[in-house]
Amino acid sequence: MLEKKGGILKIVLRQERERRNWTQEYVALKIGISQTALHKIENGQRYPSYKVLVKLLDLFGYNDPRRLFTEAGDTSNLSDEL
């Protein structure tokens, strides 16, 4: 389940960043992590901490984490507990 969500997460994060014409460096600076760390998150080499995930969701305007997955078209593994 985590792997499936992680796959969606990396795709959506990159799409959101590129849609806004933001660099990895800019996003990393805004959320307080290194560009290398963001690169690894976007490439599925690492998962963001909860704190970093919340900052990313806030930066991209996702006030409900479920929206991230529903917009990506996969709600099969989500519960109302999010």
Short description:
The chain contains five helices and no strands.
Report what the structure shows.
The protein has five helices and no strands. By secondary structure, the protein is mainly alpha-helical. The chain has one domain: 434 Repressor (Amino-terminal Domain) (Orthogonal Bundle). The chain starts with a helix and ends in an 11-residue tail after the last helix.
Supply database-style keywords.
82 residues; mainly alpha; 434 Repressor (Amino-terminal Domain)
Q: Characterize the overall form.
A: globular
CATH topology (fold) name: 434 Repressor (Amino-terminal Domain)
The H-and-E topology, N to C, reads as HHHHH
Taking Cα atoms only, what radius of gyration do you get, to the nearest Å? 12 Å
Straight-line distance between termini: 14 Å
Please work out how many helical segments DSSP would assign. Answer: 5
The overall number of domains is 1
Mean pLDDT: 81
- For the record, the CATH architecture stands as Orthogonal Bundle
Q: Runs with pLDDT <50, length 5+? A: 1-5, 74-82
Structural class: mainly alpha
CATH homologous superfamily descriptor = lambda repressor-like DNA-binding domains
Please bin the fraction of helical residues: 55-70%
CATH class: Mainly Alpha
Proportion in β-strands: under 5%
By DSSP, the count of extended strands is 0
Biggest sheet overview: none
Secondary structure topology:
Blueprint: H1 2-19, H2 24-31, H3 35-42, H4 50-59, H5 65-71
